[in-house]
Fold this sequence. Notes:
The structure is a single chain. The chain is α+β, with helices and mostly antiparallel strands. The chain is 16% helix and 17% strand. It has a single domain (27-87), classed as Trypsin Inhibitor V, Chain A, CATH 3.30.10.10. It contains one helix and three strands. The protein is elongated. The N and C termini lie far apart (50 Å).
Amino acid sequence: MRQAWILTLVIPALAACQPVPDARDPAPVCAAGQFAGLVGQPVAEAAVVPEPKRIIRPGDMITEDYRLDRTNVYLDAQDVITTLKCG
């Protein structure tokens, strides 16, 4: 019984030891704005977009998770870049 009582004090204390993220650190941002000039170019040009990136063709199934640091490169049926978006 005494061990259970000690654990009820120790576990919350350990949880309080987690580091607090620095609010001054900027959130990661994708590179979509930096590479807007790639719109209208063939998919091979998307190689210059830094990772993480995701190439999305018409009809592709993609996850709906949103990542601020990922660049989504959307293509048309001819593998030409149509849009770059964060996500």
